[in-house]
Write a structure and sequence with these properties.
The complex is a heterodimer of chains A (256) and B (351).
Chain A lengths: L1 H25 L4 H27 L7 H19 L8 H22 L12 H36 L4 H5 L3 H26 L8 H24 L3 H21 L1
Helix pairs in contact in A: 1-2, 1-4, 2-3, 3-4, 3-5, 5-7, 5-9, 7-8, 7-9, 8-9
Chain B lengths: L1 E8 L5 H7 L6 H9 L4 E8 L3 E8 L2 H16 L9 E4 L1 H11 L11 H16 L4 H20 L9 H13 L6 E5 L3 H12 L3 E7 L2 H11 L2 E4 L12 E4 L10 H8 L7 E5 L16 E5 H17 L1 H15 L21
Parallel strand pairs in B: 5-6, 5-8, 6-7, 8-9, 9-10
Antiparallel strand pairs in B: 1-3, 1-4, 2-3
Classes of the chains: A mainly alpha (256), B alpha/beta (351).
Chain lengths: 256, 351
């Protein structure tokens, strides 16, 4: 049943993306609200999938690569729904959906080809749960910051070309994207800090490689934020850095 | 009993006629009472804007009501019979016309939004004067629904329609709200003034004016509530502003790439938007190659405005389709018959 929920969630996000692209091409902006509802529906299916997997493992369902990808997708969607409107970035959802679709598609293929099955813990370690959950929520924030970075680069390109296309009028202003990137990176770094600190209290100490990689991701984001405070990064530089940093964070996750 | 619309607009009458027929806002309640006291007019709403003077109403004998209204207008505003030709729409055509007006399809600037508020105001004035009843209430309520639906489901409002609005729209795309934006004008010409006023109307503050003739700079700075500086000082302020409007009569480039590149570090990542409306151009085109700096010249702004106008024109049929669909689905409420719907004429609200 869990795989059915995941497939349904993935299809909903694909549908939302297709609908948004059609809306942008035809200028029918009233689909924006429908898109939010689709994101909510997708989130519900994600939650059902994670609950099923949680019941299976009897702990936070982050026991294999597929579940990690779904958890990051869940973080991206929930952060978009929680912050998208506050940051005046309703279009962020449209740009997030292809990434969520990609992550979940990989997860579906992975689970269907080789589902490792139940992995209940010997004993439940709340610090381990906290470490994993906070770190992956941070990934959600970093993912959204990267997506805001892509939107900013698209807008920059359109402004520089002197020939704004249809997408131009639907994109949020650069200032909002810049602010959103900074806030999302700040939120992500805060969550990751909690994740890193939790790692030191875990019953079984994490490996040195695990801590090094996690520390490197933390340093990258903290470094970007520090440079921005110290010198003031240009929006284009911040966009490129947020995309590069998220790619680095994903590669780091693969290493772990 | 049916509905009608009688009027002139920017397509049918020159400004000389429209200004003579324009109703003073404060006098509209009085006019509504006079119109309502005409023998056959049961309800009335007066819509008087820069681009149109229209009377919407309901009457039992449309032909007679329209003739009486024309006579009233000609007499009251002292226009000659031959000077003006009013258009007349009856029943469905009148409703269609109002729906198109509310959608901005009949406006001088296609798709503009101001007309929607003007119709609301006209209706509320008529309603508070007691000049509306069931038909006008339903007609105008439907026009608001149609207007909103057309604007939300089409691109009729999208894109800029003039050089000034293109500049403002671009500025908003870069900076979001223009509340805190600082503007510098280099060259106190008419185009600079107009563009700066557009930016100011959207919230831009702190306007600095630099001109070869300092007196002219002071005059424009006074008018815009800004500060005048000497012409040789503008480069010193480049790191303190977000938008630069340049329109000097200089035969050579005034703002060079090296000038802008030099201040970029001091700007700490803040974007710079340069609007070059001078011919010959004031700003070296290579300035646009700098990161985080956006340069638009008069032709580029004009192209955006032309594209915006063309796009809006392409939307007309789509908008009409939305109106048609709305009417096919819901019909025109104001034309639905209902027995004994009107109060006695004596019940007119004189407050």
């Amino acid at each position: 049943m869990d795989e059915i929920y995941l497939i349904l969630a993935t299809l909903v996000f694909l549908g939302g993306f297709v609908l948004a692209v059609v809306a942008l091409r035809t200028g029918k902006h009233q689909t924006g609200r429908l898109n939010v509802w689709l994101a909510v529906l997708g989130l519900i299916f994600q939650c059902l999938f994670l609950k099923e997997r949680g019941d299976l493992h009897m702990r936070c369902p982050i026991t294999n690569g597929a579940e990690v990808l779904v958890f990051i997708s869940w973080s991206i969607v929930i952060l978009y729904l929680a912050l998208g409107r506050a940051f005046r970035l309703s279009l962020l959802g449209v740009f997030s959906m292809p990434l969520v679709f990609l992550f979940q598609s990989v997860a579906i293929v992975s689970l269907m080809s080789n589902d490792p099955g139940a992995r209940p813990p010997d004993s439940l370690d709340p610090w381990l749960e906290m470490h994993a959950a906070m770190s992956l929520l941070a990934y959600g924030a970093f993912g959204l910051a990267g997506i805001a970075g892509i939107m900013d680069l698209v807008l920059d390109r359109q402004l520089k070309s002197h020939a704004p296309g249809r997408l131009f009028y639907s994109l949020p202003p650069m200032k909002y994207l810049y602010d959103a990137m900074l806030r999302l990176m700040l939120i992500g770094t805060g969550l990751l800090t909690i994740g890193v600190i939790s790692a030191f209290f875990m019953a079984t100490s994490p490996t040195a490689l695990h801590l090094t990689v996690l520390g490197a991701v933390w340093l990258v984001y903290a470094g970007i934020l520090f440079v921005n405070v110290a010198r003031g990064l240009r929006p284009k530089s911040l966009s490129k850095l947020s995309i590069a940093a998220f790619n680095f964070a994903l590669i780091a996750l693969l290493v772990i | 009993m049916s509905i009608f619309c009688l009027g002139v607009n920017h397509k049918t009458a020159p400004v000389e006629i429209r200004e003579r027929l324009a109703f003073a806002e404060s006098a509209i309640p009085h006019h509504l009472k006079e119109i309502r006291s005409l023998e056959v007019v049961e309800e009335a709403v007066v819509l008087s804007t820069c681009n149109r003077v229209e009377i919407y109403g309901a009457a039992n004998h449309l032909e007679k009501a329209l003739d009486q209204l024309v006579e009233y207008l000609i007499k009251h505003f002292e226009v000659g019979d031959d000077d003006v030709e009013f258009y007349r729409h009856e029943a469905e055509a009148a409703a269609h016309h109002l729906f198109e007006v509310a959608s901005g399809l009949d406006s001088m600037v296609l798709g503009e939004t101001e007309i929607f508020g003007q119709i609301k105001k006209a209706y509320l004035t008529a309603q508070s004067t007691g000049a509306t009843s069931r038909r006008m209430n339903k007609l105008f309520q439907q026009s608001f629904s149609v207007g909103k639906q057309v604007r939300s489901s089409t691109r009729i409002q999208q894109g800029s329609t003039s050089v000034g609005s293109a500049a403002v729209d671009l500025a908003e795309k870069i900076f979001g709200q223009l509340d805190g934006c600082r503007v510098m004008i280099i060259g106190a010409g008419e185009m600079s003034r107009t563009t700066a006023q557009s930016l100011k109307s959207r919230g831009s503050k702190s306007i600095i004016v630099s001109n070869r003739s300092f007196d002219k700079a002071e005059d424009l700075a006074d008018e815009l509530g800004g500060k005048a500086i000497r012409f040789d000082e503008w480069a010193n302020y480049l790191d303190q502003v977000d938008i630069v409007i340049s329109s000097t009569g200089s035969p050579h480039a005034v703002v060079k790439k090296s000038d802008v590149a030099m201040v970029l570090k001091r700007r700490r990542g803040h974007s710079l938007f340069l609007i070059d409306i001078a011919v010959p151009r004031d700003v070296e085109s290579s300035v646009n190659d700098l990161d985080n700096v956006y340069l638009y010249n008069i032709d580029q702004l004009q192209r955006i405005a032309d594209a915006g106008v063309a796009q809006r024109h392409q939307q007309i049929e789509t908008c009409r389709g939305v109106i048609r669909d709305f009417l096919n689905e819901k019909g025109i409420d104001a034309l639905a018959s209902e027995p004994s719907e009107y109060p006695e004429r004596g019940s007119f609200n004189h407050s």
